[in-house]
Structures are given as structure tokens and as C-alpha cells.
Design brief:
CATH class of the largest domain: Alpha Beta
Number of strands: 10
Number of helices: 18
Number of domains: 4
Distance between the termini: 75 Å
Strand content: 5-15%
Shape: globular
Radius of gyration: 26 Å
CATH topology of the largest domain: Rossmann fold
Structural class: alpha/beta
Oligomer: single chain
Bound molecules: adenosine-5'-diphosphate, magnesium ion
Order of helices and strands: HHEEHEEEHEHEHHEHEHEHHHHHHHHH
């Protein structure tokens, strides 16, 4: 009977994969898969969750199919289905006490071992769509720059709502705030029945405005005040937005009173938040604050190495070394560089050599170097275009002929550099970051009504690049 044969085939494939992958990797991903059915050329296997299925699909599908085909000596169509096993035990809450985060270190660098943080045995819920499924603890490389933050995040994931509330993660652009926050969400969602909500501050504000407009505030309150875990990303965005701050304050209190968990990320520590209600800031201060610093070379290397491996790409170490030496500002740029090279390798079907890497990264390296100098360049270009002085841009004059170029220059700084709004504010005569955000939005809104703005911005950006390249 064909059905039996195929099931036997599947078992044999599993046996072989176990030997090839090793016990540990095999146990992480294969023990919970079951044979479902087959028909014609197809074999269907079942997964306990969509999350699990997608992971296996990404990393092992081709290998499994190839193995089956080899064993069967014919073409096989592999079907991956989500299949909730009957009587799946309730997923246990994390076993280990919060005080002993289990992160293995090597030279002070670590990734969290699967199974140590997540009880990977029986994930039963579908992946939460608001969260990126690759933003997990397993994929978070830990070094001395983020050690405390990551361990605190792990502890909180195991016991949300108890000790560290709110949890306040702060640090510069691209240092891993969003990844860490979503790892908390993914972990709790996967390992408990708790309701997790992740929102960016912008979405929180938009939803709030919409509910006010349509007099549906009850909906808003029910949604956000009654969740078990609320993750709000980039709260610096709420500066000077007093209405939503008030709502946030009440949301926050309800959740805390119910002993549920709140996590925030921000580009600065609470004490540096300007145009925020004092009672809100003092609430932020009462929880646990952790900061993320830029990683040193070894940590950058580990991050890129693991990102490349996860993508199944064999970028040579000397190329990774080049990326990590040239780009030090933030992890997002590092990953961006890696992606450029991986895409090149995939499209061209070539190995990335040091020469190729140097060439491909040239643009990127130039622009990332530029981003360290170019605020001055942007100010020069914008000032000369509008016939005002750089000092006017930095100064206090409020006449329209100065205000517009000033806002536009800040806008371009945010678009073209990796500086935080706090740093941009500094460069514009010590303005605070909410002014920078305000200017940015002001310009962005203006695109709608000013048909020429697009081309003006294009011209300015081109001039900035040209002048930047000469400096
Ligand atoms: P932020 O929110 O602080 O601006 P992100 O969380 O968006 O930064 O991180 C930018 C990129 O860098 C993401 O692709 C993220 O996965 C990656 N990243 C940051 N820190 C780490 C880390 N420690 N290990 C692995 N990847 C990281
Ligand atoms: Mg972020």
C-alpha cells in the first residue's frame, strides 16, 4: 500500500536527518512533526504551529524533500500543514526562576540556546502577526553592550507583570530595541495563554485619534487596558502630544494595577524626555530601565556570522571581517550590508570574495561614513539653496524665510543620516528632539499640498551627496 510505504519513507528520512543534524538540532525542530497522509506524489506532514512550520520550511524544506526523493527514487511533493495534536498539554510557563537567566557565554558573547529560553516542545498558538517571527531571543546575540538588557528581558518573559514594571528599553537607532521588545512578545505568546499587544507609538496614536473621531473610546480602552502584555515601541514619538499621553497614563495604570506587563522602547532615557507629562516620566522611572550600547567588533562579528548562517549563506569570514571593521555605528547598517552581499551572491550565483565585497560595499561605506559628518554638509547645502546662513538655521529667528529651510534641513538630516532626533536637535542650536520630530512631520505633511517640494528635496539630497563625497 502506497500510504504505508510513504510513512515508512518518512520515518527513514527522519532517521537519516537525525544523524546528519545531530540530536540537539533535530530535537528542536523534528520531534514534534508528524506524518499525516499521502496521495500520489505528495506526502503531508503536520506541525504543531504555523510558527514551527514556517521555521522548518525556511530552513529545512529543500533538504527534507531531497531526502524523500532520494529514498523514493521519484519526485515528491511535500505538503506542510499545521496540525494541532489532540490532547496537547497546556504549555507550561517557563520553568526556570527569573533570577537565573540561562545564557551561555563564550568570550562574553552569547546567543540564547533554544530550549533554554523557550520550551520549544509544544508551541500551540499561531505566530502573532504583529510580531516578526525572527525577532526572538534565539536570534539575539548577547555581548557586554546588551547583556543586562537581554537578561532582564528574558527574566521578564518568564514572569511578566511581576517585578520589573514597566520595562523601559532605551538606546540609539538600530541597536536592537525593537528586536528585544518583540522577542519578549514572541516568547510570552508562544509559551503562555497571555494576550500580547505590540504597537508602534505612531499606530497607538493613530488608533487613539480614530477612536476619538468616531466616538469609540470604549473600544480603545477595552483593547489596550485589558491586555496582559502591552509593548509600545519608540515612545519618544509622543513628545508634546498631550492628549495621547494622558490616555497612555491611564492605560498604563490599569495594566499595572492588574499586575500585567508594560514594555516601552525609547531613543533616550526617561530623564531626557522633553514635553512629556511629569507623572508619566516618573512612572517610567519607577520601573526597570536598561540601555543598549553599540556592540564592539567581536559582537558585531558574531551578529553578522549568525545572520549569514541563518540565511543559509556562506559569506567568507574575511568578508564578514570587512563589514564589521568598516561599519560600527549600528547593527541595522551591518545587517543592511550583509543583505546587499547575500542578494548579490544569490542573483549572480557567485561566492562573495573580498574584492567583490569591497566593490559592492563602496557605496554603502561611503554613505555610512558620510552619515557621521553630513549634518554639517546638509546645513551648508540647504542654507546656500535658500540664501540664508548656517547660523540662521541654528539660530532662533522665527521668520518664515528661515523657519522653512530650518525644518527642511532637519527633515533631510532624519532622512539621510542615522542620527537620532536628539542629536539632530543638538546640531540645530540645541533644540530638543520633539522639535525635530515636529519639523519632520510638518515637512512630510507639506508634500501633500506643495507639488514642488519633491523635486526640491531631490535636488538638495543630490547636492548633499556631491558635497559630502568631496569632503
Ligand atoms: P532599533 O529598534 O533599536 O532601532 P532594531 O531592533 O530594529 O533596532 O535592530 C536593527 C537590526 O539589527 C534588526 O535587524 C535586528 O534584528 C538586528 N539586531 C540588533 N541587535 C542585534 C543583536 N544583538 N543580535 C542580533 N541581531 C540584532
Ligand atoms: Mg525600533
Amino acid at each position: 500500500m502506497a500510504t504505508l510505504d510513504n510513512e515508512a519513507l518518512w520515518k527513514e528520512a527522519l532517521n537519516q536527518l537525525k544523524t546528519e543534524l545531530g540530536e540537539r538540532e533535530f530535537n528542536d525542530w523534528f520531534t514534534d512533526i508528524c506524518y499525516l497522509k499521502s496521495g500520489g506524489k505528495s506526502i503531508a506532514i503536520g506541525f504543531p504551529s504555523a510558527f514551527h512550520r514556517d521555521r522548518v520550511k525556511r530552513s529545512y524544506q529543500d533538504r527534507i524533500r531531497a531526502k524523500l526523493q532520494k529514498l523514493a527514487g521519484k519526485e515528491i511533493i511535500l505538503e506542510l500543514e499545521v496540525f494541532a495534536k489532540k490532547g496537547v498539554e497546556k504549555v507550561s510557563t517557563p520553568q526556570k526562576p527569573a533570577s537565573s537567566p540561562s545564557v551561555e557565554t563564550q568570550n562574553g558573547i552569547a546567543t540564547v540556546e533554544k530550549g533554554k529560553v523557550s520550551s520549544s516542545q509544544k508551541p500551540k498558538r499561531d505566530h502573532l502577526p504583529q510580531l516578526r517571527d525572527d525577532y526572538t531571543f534565539e536570534r539575539y546575540v548577547i555581548g557586554e553592550n546588551n547583556n543586562f538588557a537581554a537578561n532582564a528581558a528574558i527574566a521578564i518573559s518568564r514572569n511578566p507583570g511581576t517585578n520589573y514594571n514597566p520595562f523601559f528599553i532605551y538606546g540609539g537607532v538600530g541597536l536592537g530595541k525593537t528586536h528585544l521588545m518583540q522577542a519578549i512578545g514572541n516568547y510570552i505568546h508562544e509559551n503562555s495563554d497571555k494576550k500580547v499587544i505590540y504597537v508602534t507609538s505612531e499606530d497607538f496614536l493613530n488608533e487613539y485619534m480614530e477612536c476619538i473621531r468616531e466616538t469609540k473610546m470604549n473600544l480603545f480602552k477595552n483593547k489596550f487596558r485589558r491586555t496582559d502584555v502591552l509593548l509600545i515601541d519608540d515612545i519618544q514619538f509622543f513628545a508634546a502630544k498631550w492628549g495621547v499621553q494622558e490616555e497612555l497614563f491611564h492605560t498604563f495604570n490599569s495594566i499595572l494595577n492588574a499586575k500585567n506587563q508594560v514594555v516601552f522602547t525609547c531613543d533616550c532615557p526617561p530623564s531626557e524626555l522633553k514635553k512629556f507629562e511629569e507623572r508619566l516620566v516618573s512612572r517610567f522611572e519607577q520601573g526597570l530601565k536598561v540601555d543598549l550600547q553599540p556592540p564592539r567588533y567581536e559582537v558585531r562579528f558574531a551578529i553578522i556570522k549568525s545572520a549569514a548562517e541563518k540565511r543559509g549563506s556562506s559569506i567568507p569570514d574575511e568578508v564578514i571581517d570587512l563589514i564589521c571593521k568598516k561599519i560600527s555605528s549600528n547593527v541595522r547598517d551591518l545587517i543592511g550590508a550583509l543583505n546587499t552581499l547575500v542578494a548579490y551572491a544569490e542573483i549572480m550565483g557567485k561566492q562573495v570574495t573580498l574584492d567583490i565585497a569591497q566593490q559592492k560595499l563602496k557605496d554603502m561605506l561611503v554613505s555610512s561614513k558620510q552619515s557621521n559628518l553630513s549634518m554639517e554638509v546638509i546645513q551648508k547645502v540647504v542654507a546656500s539653496y535658500f540664501s540664508v546662513s548656517v547660523n540662521d538655521l541654528k539660530g532662533k529667528k522665527r521668520t518664515q524665510n528661515v523657519v522653512f529651510p530650518r525644518q527642511l534641513a532637519m527633515y533631510i538630516c532624519r532622512e539621510m543620516t542615522e542620527y537620532s532626533s536628539t542629536e539632530i536637535g543638538e546640531a540645530f542650536g540645541g533644540r530638543d528632539h520633539s522639535t525635530v520630530i515636529y519639523s519632520f512631520e510638518k515637512i512630510r505633511n507639506r508634500f501633500v499640498i506643495d507639488a514642488n517640494l519633491d523635486s526640491t528635496v531631490d535636488i538638495l539630497k543630490r547636492q548633499v551627496k556631491e558635497l559630502g563625497a568631496k569632503m
